[in-house]
């Protein structure tokens, strides 16, 4: 089998390249313009970038073979994530690799801002000795407001606490109890702006955070506040910041990132009270090595059919839950695949119900639901369907989706129920995972069974009387198709029954027609419970 091809379009540490080259064919082509990238991307299965390459919708559309886009760093604002999602391309980043680098740069900027170190350095090198001009402040007992309390925000707080600063934070996704354990008090953004002596931002640039520091919010801050941004350009309204520094409202700012980079025409560069660096937050030898290794390993994992650790366009499962939920996710996909091949009509809606012990993982079940959708859609569509784009593809086709979590499991420790409705009928499939990841489909509609969800199956509805099953087995034997297992479910003897046969090979359509023509057979369908197209 030919090796997968990977394009690296920004400089990447050698340690990451070495990992990629062990498993893939790797080309390094940097400084490509959009049209140049569009011209070559169709040859590649994966694209690795840093902040220099703009991965636009046009580029992604041209990448017909693309399965993975990796950002060797944190921010993915240079990648059109929505376009990648529509095309089923996994986008992943490396959020942990540069955490310490960005943290230490933030601390360096804060200390430099407090003591006017860059300005004093420049002055003395001009052979000036103006000590009084560079009077600073002590950070001891000052209130540090941290906007965004993720990995970097927490590391900044740890170091600021060691300096006896009072740390407060705003983050809608962290509890007061967890923040208190880290020595930080969480509060509203408005209160944080009002009481902080120093404000540092550590959020991604999204609609909700764009210009979160603006003329209105600055007006509510303390006189003499100092502002730091080592996160993303655009979080601060730079025109408003310029005016606030000129007026004296803001005592100074330290900026590593800008709305436009390089910011050579920015008026902020003309102010002595503004310290600037050229986007150096992740620029350490260690950080570049770490993010390169992380994104390279994720790339190889995806190209080998696995999943990326830090996917940004698919639901994430906490690492501590992954081992528990993985067997359920695999079962859910197989149940979806089974259901769609054994139900008649056009898919209209799907309801996923997670019961029993699964109720403890309610926040992570969206991951499992997407695999149900993948199982339902992948066998019947020509476009690729995966965990990334399954929900988008379903919505695009008007398929209604719902997800319910309940403690009720109908006698099982855990239970997944998939209820599929089409324009002609409805079918319900239930499954469970026993010890050691042993999974079973335990019912189809009203019929109880113990079906191993693997390989090839024939599902028939027939009259429950002697000879019907025997005749079907004879037809299969005559065609040299071996039966590996059989499940029969019935409610009342002599009425309709459901039979599921596990077989060792595919069953040709002419054989299925012969089975359907038998007396007593109401319907019979063949299904592949695998990831291959039907």
Molecular shape: elongated
Number of helices: 17
> Which strands sit side by side, in order, in the main sheet?
8-7-6-9-10-11-12
Radius of gyration, taken over Cα atoms and rounded to an integer in Å:
30 Å
Mean pLDDT metric: 92
> Are there runs of 5+ residues with pLDDT below 50, and where?
none
Counting helices, strands and paired strands, the structural category is: alpha/beta
Distance between the termini: 23 Å
Tell me the major beta sheet: 7 strands, parallel
Portion of residues in beta strands equals: 15-25%
Helix content: 25-40%
The strand count comes to 22
Could you characterize what this model shows?
This protein is an alpha/beta fold and 534 residues long. The protein is 33% helix and 24% strand. The protein has helices spanning 14-23, 34-40, 57-62, 81-87, 99-115, 117-125, 151-162, 176-181, 189-195, 215-219, 238-247, 285-303, 319-342, 365-377, 390-396, 468-478, 509-516; strands at 5-8, 25-28, 46-49, 68-71, 90-92, 143-147, 166-170, 185-186, 198-201, 225-229, 250-255, 274-276, 347-356, 400-406, 414-422, 426-433, 439-444, 447-451, 455-463, 483-490, 496-503, 521-529. It has a 7-stranded parallel sheet with strand order 8-7-6-9-10-11-12, sandwiched between helices. It has a 6-stranded mixed sheet with strand order 14-13-15-16-17-18, covered by helices on one side. A 5-stranded parallel sheet has the order 2-1-3-4-5, sandwiched between helices. Helix 5 crosses helix 7 (151-162). It is elongated. It starts with a strand and ends in a 5-residue tail after the last strand. The mean pLDDT is 92.
């Amino acid at each position: 089998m030919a090796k997968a091809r990977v394009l690296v379009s920004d400089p990447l540490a050698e340690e990451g390249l070495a990992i990629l080259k062990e498993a893939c064919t790797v080309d390094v082509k940097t400084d490509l313009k959009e049209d140049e990238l569009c011209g070559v991307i169709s040859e590649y299965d994966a694209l690795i970038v840093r902040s220099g390459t703009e991965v636009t919708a046009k580029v992604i559309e041209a990448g017909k073979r693309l399965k993975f886009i990796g950002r060797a760093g944190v921010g993915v604002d240079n990648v059109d994530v929505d376009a990648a999602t529509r095309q089923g391309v996994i986008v992943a980043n490396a959020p942990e690799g540069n955490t310490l680098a960005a943290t230490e740069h933030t601390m360096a900027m804060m200390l430099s801002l407090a003591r006017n170190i860059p300005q004093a350095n420049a002055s003395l090198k001009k052979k000036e000795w103006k000590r009084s001009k560079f009077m600073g402040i002590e950070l001891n007992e000052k209130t540090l407001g941290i906007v965004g309390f993720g990995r970097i925000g927490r590391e900044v707080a740890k170091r600021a606490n060691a300096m006896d600063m009072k740390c407060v934070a705003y983050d809608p996704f962290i509890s007061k109890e967890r923040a208190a354990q880290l020595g930080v008090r969480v509060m509203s953004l408005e209160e944080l702006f009002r009481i902080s002596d120093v404000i540092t931002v550590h959020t991604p640039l999204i609609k909700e955070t764009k210009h979160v520091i603006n003329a209105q919010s600055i007006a509510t801050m303390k006189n003499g506040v100092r502002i730091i941004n080592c996160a993303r350009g655009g979080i601060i309204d730079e025109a408003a910041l310029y005016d606030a520094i000129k007026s004296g409202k803001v005592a100074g700012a330290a900026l590593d990132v800008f709305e436009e980079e390089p910011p050579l025409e920015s008026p902020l560069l003309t102010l002595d009270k503004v310290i600037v660096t050229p986007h150096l937050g992740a620029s350490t030898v260690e950080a570049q090595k770490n993010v390169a290794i992380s994104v390279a390993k994720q790339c190889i994992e995806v190209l080998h059919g696995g999943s990326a650790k830090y996917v940004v366009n698919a639901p994430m499962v906490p690492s501590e839950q992954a081992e528990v939920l993985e067997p359920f996710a695999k079962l859910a996909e197989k149940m979806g695949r089974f259901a769609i091949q054994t139900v008649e009509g056009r898919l209209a809606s799907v309801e996923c119900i997670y019961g029993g012990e699964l109720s403890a993982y309610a926040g992570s079940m969206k991951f499992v639901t997407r695999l149900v959708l993948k199982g339902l859609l992948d066998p019947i569509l020509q476009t690729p369907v995966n965990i990334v784009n399954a929900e988008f593809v379903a919505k695009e086709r008007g398929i209604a989706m719902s997800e319910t979590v309940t403690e009720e499991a109908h006698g099982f420790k855990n239970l997944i129920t998939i209820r599929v409705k089409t324009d002609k009928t409805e079918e319900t499939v239930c499954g469970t995972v026993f010890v050691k990841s042993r999974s079973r489909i335990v019912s189809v509609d009203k019929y109880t069974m113990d079906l191993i969800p693997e390989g090839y199956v024939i599902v028939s509805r027939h009259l429950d009387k002697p000879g019907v099953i025997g005749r079907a087995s004879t037809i299969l034997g005559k065609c040299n198709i071996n039966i590996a297992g059989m499940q029969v479910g019935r409610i009342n003897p002599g009425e309709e029954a459901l039979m599921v046969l596990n077989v060792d090979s595919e069953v040709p359509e002419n054989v299925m027609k012969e089975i359907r023509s038998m007396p007593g057979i109401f319907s019979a369908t063949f299904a592949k419970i695998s990831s291959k197209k039907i």
